[in-house]
Structures are given as C-alpha cells and as structure tokens.
From TrEMBL:
GO terms for molecular function: cobalamin binding; isomerase activity; metal ion binding. Keywords: Membrane, Transmembrane, Transmembrane helix. PANTHER family: METHYLMALONYL-COA MUTASE, LARGE SUBUNIT (PTHR48101:SF1), METHYLMALONYL-COA MUTASE, MITOCHONDRIAL-RELATED (PTHR48101). The chain crosses the membrane at residues 20-43. It comes from termite gut metagenome. InterPro entries: Cobalamin-bd_sf. This is Methylmalonyl-CoA mutase.
Amino acid sequence: KQMDGSIKKGKVESRGFGMYVHFGSITVFVATAFMLTIGNLAMRQARAQFSCNFLACAGYEVVDNLGFETVEAGVEAAVAAKADIVVLCSSDDEYAEYAVPTFKALKGRAVFIVAGAPACTEELQANGITNFINVRSNVLDTLKEYNAQLLN
C-alpha cells in the first residue's frame, strides 16, 4: 500500500517454479502449493481445505483439486502446474498406500507434505518423508521451515 492509501499494482512473472511479483525495485517470490487429492472423498476434501487455509497464511498461491484417480495423474498435474509444494490429501488409512509412491514420483521437484498425522508416520519418515501438517502443527514455525526449504 502506498502512502496515499492507493494500492500499487505489481508486474507478475512466472519463472519455472513459483511466481515473482515486481513492485518497482522490490521483487517478491510467491510459491505455489498444489493439493494432490486422492482416495476417500470426504477426507481428501477436508484435508485439502485445511491445507489450503494453513498454507495461504504464508501468502502461498494454493491450487485445490477435485481428486485424482492415480498417484501418477496427480504428480503429472502437480509438475504441469509448476508446484513448489505438493500436499498429499487423503485419509490416514490410505497414506500407507499413496505417500511413498507420490514422494518418489516427485523426485525432489517440490516440497512434499502429508496433510494429517497418520498411524504410519514412522514408516513414512523411514522413507524420507519429513513434512506433515495437522491441527497440532505450530503454523508460524511450520511455515518458517517451509519458507527456508523453498529458498534453499
């Protein structure tokens, strides 16, 4: 916002991953968080809504989806969307089936997050999955960590 109360419009530019907004000499990176929704309809929608709200607090652009039939279709869509963050949204029971294949298919092209606190968390961590968000997550600390991951 400018001193006279008007809002200065910025030039938006996409450079591969994320989005850059230019305000004169100031450039701001805006990350894209993609909801990879799969499996149980009620749980994937609830987790996607929670995750969109959680990540929007950091100013990330959030991309919600109706649902994917397969992990491969979801990953393909996330890569096509140039997602900086991919959030797997499903039910706790289904994470054992979907999380590791999704993580491996992304091949490090995005920060990978599991929405929830599934019983199989230790198994997922043993496979390299370290990012989880749920109602017990400290929003500020978690978003600071994701910002650090994105900027490295």
